[in-house]
Structures are given as C-alpha cells and as structure tokens.
C-alpha cells in the first residue's frame, strides 16, 4: 500500500532521514520505533507531505506522491494523527469528529464510522458535547484517533499516541489500536517510543536510528533480536 524507496528528507540545512526504504502492506500493522530525535515524526511529515523529500520516492497504492499536495493526501486515504494530539480545544468532541470527516469518503461513511468510534471508545459518546480542551490526555488522544478514523482512511498513521500518558492509559490506547485493527480493514502505521508495547501490538516493525532504518522484521523477530532487547527492551 505504502512504499518509501531511498527517501532523504530534513529541514533546510538539517538532514534527518537518510536513505529510508520501507513498505507497509494493505491490512498490516507496522510500528516504527527508535529513540528521541531518530526522525520518526519527520518520517510521518514526509509521508503526509508537510516535509518534502530531497531524494527518493514515496508511493501510495502504486501512485507516486511527489506531485500530490499535502492537502490532497487525506483524500487518497492517508490519515495522520499527529504527535501531541492537537485536538481543536474549543470544539466539542462531536465537532472534532465531524472535522475529521472532511473527506468525501468520510462524509459518506460518517454515520457508520461514528458508530464504530463510539463502540470502540464509549467515553467519547458520553462526552460528545464536552469541549475537547477540557478532556483528560487519554480522552484527547481518543478524540485524535477518532478524528483520524472519521476521515475514512485506508492508512491510519499514529505519531506516538502514548506520549505523555500514564502507563495504564497508554496500555488502554494500545488495546484500542489492536481492536481497531481487528474490527476494521485499516492499515496502521504507528510511531512509538514505547518499544515493547508497539512491537507487541504490531505485526511488523522498523527500527529507526539517526534517520536510518537499522533493522526491520516481524514483531517476533525484533523482540527476539539481541540489539533490540538490550537497547529498547531493557533486557
Ligand atoms: P521524538 O521521539 O523526540 O519526537 P523523532 O524521532 O520523532 O523524535 P523528529 O521530531 O523527526 O524525531 O526530529 C528529528 C531531528 O530533526 C531532530 O534532530 C530535530 O531536532 C530535527 N527537527 C525536527 N523538526 C525540525 C524543524 N522544524 N527544523 C529543524 N530541525 C528539526
């Protein structure tokens, strides 16, 4: 579904991604893990078009994304749930979800997706009239995920959904991602610093260090890898 081939990208004079190649197949749950500053967020921004690659190619469903504007990419089926949630604080939960449904596919499937979002995260149904800015961090993350689902994407990209959450709440969010995977045909691409949880949830992983993919494999392979165990799993 999504393929990056030799992608280099960064910010003016700061090169970040160096020759990154990766593939996400339809229906897969792929995790990108790595330390602070490895370039995970930059990778997502490059896929959504906010950052332009200086080399390499990104294709989505066989289509070269180079000439596709960032604003057009959600309409192709790419949803980016950004780091730090970024809900609209002075809009209600319901209005945030409606804002997510700005794509044609999202408009068409809104009723069905709303049922799905509320079934997955009932707290959002209970709080549908509450200003999103007054929700807890975990609830805001659920709004952000719901807003992504509301665009009726094919690929749901989640940038560190556990960031700033207490461990129990973060675990709850990971459970939700697994449920989303089971209940929909969504392809999920997750960026995470919580490596153990991310590799447990996903079926394939890439380790990004200093802008390069240094390792990739099935979740079982990565979890058994000595380097991953020592550097990321504290074993
Ligand atoms: P974290 O897990 O801490 O969010 P990350 O793996 O997502 O880290 P990025 O946010 O992609 O990493 O940052 C990669 C590098 O790019 C860092 O060295 C960062 O300082 C730099 N960087 C990020 N955004 C910008 C920017 N707008 N301008 C210049 N440099 C930037």
Describe the structure.
This protein is an alpha/beta fold. The protein contains 11 helices and 10 strands. The protein has a domain of 126 residues: 3-Layer(aba) Sandwich (Rossmann fold). Helices cover 39% and strands 27% of the residues. Strands 6-7-8-3-9-10 form a 6-stranded mixed β-sheet, sandwiched between helices. The protein has a 4-stranded antiparallel β-sheet with strand order 2-1-4-5, covered by helices on one side. The structure holds adenosine-5'-triphosphate.
Count of β-strands: 10
**CATH class term of one domain:** Alpha Beta
- Helical fraction: 25-40%
The CATH architecture of one domain comes to 3-Layer(aba) Sandwich
Mean pLDDT across every amino acid position: 94
Major sheet details:
6 strands, mixed
Q: Any idea what the CATH superfamily of one domain is called?
A: P-loop containing nucleotide triphosphate hydrolases
CA distance, first residue to last residue: 34 Å
Q: Which stretches of 5+ consecutive residues score pLDDT under 50?
A: none
* Distinct compounds present: adenosine-5'-triphosphate
Q: Number of helical segments?
A: 11
Portion in beta strands: 25-35%
List keywords for this structure.
six-stranded mixed β-sheet; single chain; 235 residues; Rossmann fold; 11 helices; alpha/beta; binds adenosine-5'-triphosphate; globular
Condensed summary:
The protein has 235 residues and is of the alpha/beta class.
